[in-house]
Design goal:
3-stranded antiparallel sheet; Rossmann fold; 6-stranded parallel sheet
Amino acid sequence: MKNAKSILLAAAALGLSSVANGQTAKNVVLVHGAFADGSGWRGVYDELTSRGFRVSIVQNPLTSFDDDVVATKRVLARQDGPTILVGHSYGGSVITQAGGDPKVVGLVYVAAFAPEVGQSTLDQYAEVAPPPNFVPEESADGFATLNRDKFKAGFAGDASNDVAAFLRDSQVPIAMAALKAKVTFAAWKTKPSWAVVATQDGAIDPRLLRSTARRIGAVTTEVKGSHVVFLTQPKAVADVIEQAAMKAQAATR
């Protein structure tokens, strides 16, 4: 598997773009993470659709890991050809499990987890602990939301106060069981991968993001931004997705 992945990534690194052959992957599926919904992708959506991509956004129920994987597969089933699958934060765990779909020709991890088989999202914090302002609070029913007072610093540090307040007050609770669920398949082992490291991430330490990107062999781009870098730096994130679309299909042919 490692040799196959190395060949794919080497091809991508050489810049083997399928653009010249008219075979760039034109479908993009965006998968949000915990404590959020798909609306945060609007800036990336606008960037990509203006560049000619067909973009679909998954709305994860966040009720269980299996539910979120099924929601992602449901959107993948509607795609009409080669697709780039993008995950933010916990969404990286989801695309790791769901990315084996044959339509998926590349994976993009945006400030995201990328578990090994047998790992959960939370297991990855064993390598580098979460920053101090990232404070999930679990309720009696097993769902968690982020601490109100530390929300901006831990989740959306480079967003305006108004935007951060809206994200805080509209956050979607996630079942803690979803964060503890182990992945049984790792798509990054056979699919070329890209990673965006948010250098001011207050939810996943940038050291962990860098280590994760190295472990999965991802082509890595560092972007100055918080954990919601996709929302605050949509052009930079869209640029990485476009790069993946240009190179991934050629690398997997």
